[in-house]
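Minutes, project check-in

Agenda point 3 was the complex the collaborators sent over. CS summarized: four entities, 270 residues total, and the question is how they sit relative to each other. Sequences were read into the notes so everyone works from the same version.
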Amino acid sequence: MKSTQEYLIAHDIKPSVQRLGIMEYLLSHRTHPTADEVYWDLQPSIPTLSKTTVYNTMKLFVEQGVAIQIDIDERNARFDGVVEAHAHFYCKKCGCIIDLPLPQISWMMSETYGFTVDETCVNLKGICEECKKKS
Amino acid sequence: MKSTQEYLIAHDIKPSVQRLGIMEYLLSHRTHPTADEVYWDLQPSIPTLSKTTVYNTMKLFVEQGVAIQIDIDERNARFDGVVEAHAHFYCKKCGCIIDLPLPQISWMMSETYGFTVDETCVNLKGICEECKKKS
DNA sequence: CTTTGTGCAAATTCTTTGCACCAAA
DNA sequence: TTTGGTGCAAAGAATTTGCACAAAG
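CS then shared the predicted structure for the full assembly.
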């Protein structure tokens, strides 16, 4: 079990209080947060944190392959520290985003169609089980 | 072969010059255009067209199920008049978006996981064949 | 020192809203 | 008329940029 610090270094990211905080946040809160959510949640523990830094860091993380940007929410960019290909289910009622394991399929698409696929994002939208129970 | 006008009416959309123009644009240009692209391409033939109307119309189309909004481009909302579930491949080099037929898989996810899925968008990102040839 | 990261404030960009005018039934 | 569609201008919201200061080696 590598430390977050070693994990960042292994991906050519120089650790800083902010970067470590954000990476740990992503890894422990698998909520696909927006930059804003990350900012407000970390701001108490890193008082000088700015949104610019959150954006800068997210961009760096995506470039270095330790995070992915999820375009399931048309309003905000959302980020995920889980970089392995998986599907996201967005509930149109409560707004939750649920991770789903992905049958080993669409990656074969790259072989079938001859593309080089390096990011995969399956976005499903609908109503989640919880919300279905409530109605 | 239904006319665009009948198609709109069948989906409870009252036809207007603008709506017909935009729908026909979507059906004939399968380029997953942004609102801006639709606006500038149609503006010569519909001189009074406004971006507000493009946005209004797109929203209506999505609500009525004759278009989908694609969140593959973090910068702009893109729209597609092909509403059947299919995958999109985004080339990180040239920016093109290619439609891919979708093996009948992920829809089974709804049955597997018990969600009601009413929108599906598989987003793959990488380098397309054309760009691979050029490098 | 020198390089790199951080963060404020301002600027940009995309999208939505408020509201008045227009058009069709 | 009355209802609904359109479009201008302004507002709103998310993200980016410019730049100066701070931190680390």
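Noted in discussion: Chain A has a mean pLDDT of 84.
Follow-up: revisit at the next meeting once the mutant set is ready.
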